[in-house]
Amino acid sequence: MISNQILQNTIDGLKAIARVDFCVMDVDGKDVASTIDMSSCSKAAVEFAVSPADSQEIQGYQYFKIFDEQQLEYVLVIAGTGEDVYTIGKMVAFQIQNLLVAYKERFDKDNFIKNLLLDNLLLVDIYSRSKKLHIQADVPRVVMIVESANGKDNNALELSRGYFGVNSRDFVTAVDENNVIVVKELSEGDLGREIEKAARGLENCLQKEGIKDIRIAYGTVVHEIKEVSRSYKEAKMALDVGKIFFDERDIIAYSELGIGRLIYQLPIPLCKMFIREIFGGKSPDEFDEETLTTIHKFFENSLNVSETSRQLFIHRNTLVYRLDKLQKSTGLDLRVFEDAITFKIALMVVKYMKYMETFEY
Questions:
Q1: Separation CA 324–CA 345 (nearest Å)
Q2: Distance between CA 183 and CA 109 in Å, rounded?
Q3: Residue 20's CB: how many other CB atoms inside 10 A?
């Protein structure tokens, strides 16, 4: 349950304080963590493990049992004898035992959150287990997904846990090999601003540790623990749709996807049929760079001819000429709202199709 590295760090820190050497062995007498070599104590540790005593002094060493729910987990060996060493030993054994409990609880919560995200729990189990694990059921939460260039191999999971804090009511976990998932509990204030602040802060923290190409997506706020899986699914969609239509943004919310999330759910054959019917087999992104720049700028300025021509540093008549030329080639007049909508959707559909071509189906 608890890693050997955690035990090693713990006894190293305790040695620095108490100035006494420690060794933690398993019930078979194997060294798990130690500040000096105590392999000579292995046989005595095994004999002590099967004895009824909770502590014992043997040939200049103190032995203590460490239990995990009535089950003997480790034997603690301390170099030295006397009342002071005995007291230190009892305190260290107590500390390690509490670590076992804390990590066991963390594991149970992590398991619960994973199953909650993946919809692997019945409704009655969600509330009974959350109560048993002391997880509040009716507070606002949001799910964030963190993706980076190298997946989870770059220690992003532990860094994210460190950023949100071990004792916080936020949960940081992973259900696959690529992404880190954060289930963040929110206050009752400005939820949107709080989420954005948390996402930006986490991104900055990971970047400082050398993690690159970070993308963070999050779903909508839910107020019941049973709805956390919905926020997770929304965050997953936001991550995918964001790569297609908002590739310049590193943080994206599900609520900001707009029509992109509808296009994302269209089958590819239907998309091809739409492009073929509107443009006669041609693709709307095959125009030259000047025409595409004009189109995008025209959309950015809400079909305003004067403002678009000003930002493009061209005469109004030049812009009108370009729009007329586009109308002749496509049959769509971008100055007409309905035609502009059709063209905008077509551009997004083509972008979606190109993205999906990178995957095998």
A1: 20
A2: 12
A3: 18
Measured over the CA atoms of residue 196, residue 199, residue 203 and residue 206, the dihedral's sign is positive
User: DSSP string spanning 173-188?
Assistant: E-SSSSEEEEEEE--S
Q: Give the Cα-Cα-Cα angle 118, 123, 127 (nearest 5 degrees).
A: 100
User: Is 149:113 a contact under the CB 8 Å cutoff?
Assistant: no
Tokens of 151: 């997946």
**281-288 LR contacts (CB < 8 Å, sep 24+):** 283/350, 284/330, 284/343, 284/346, 284/347, 284/350, 285/347, 285/350, 285/351, 287/326
CB 1 within 8 A of CB 68: yes
Rounded CA-CA distance 22/48 in Å is 16
Residue that is written with structure tokens 């006894």 in the block: 11
| pTM for the predicted model, two decimal places | 0.68
296-to-96, 263, 312, 360 alpha-carbon distances in Å: 62, 19, 11, 30
Using one digit for the tens of pLDDT, what is the confidence trace for 95-150? 998 888 777 766 688 888 998 999 988 888 888 888 878 889 999 999 999 998 76
Residue 349 burial (CB count, 10 A): 21
Tell me the two tokens of residue 158. 């532990």
Strands (E), 234-359: 251-253
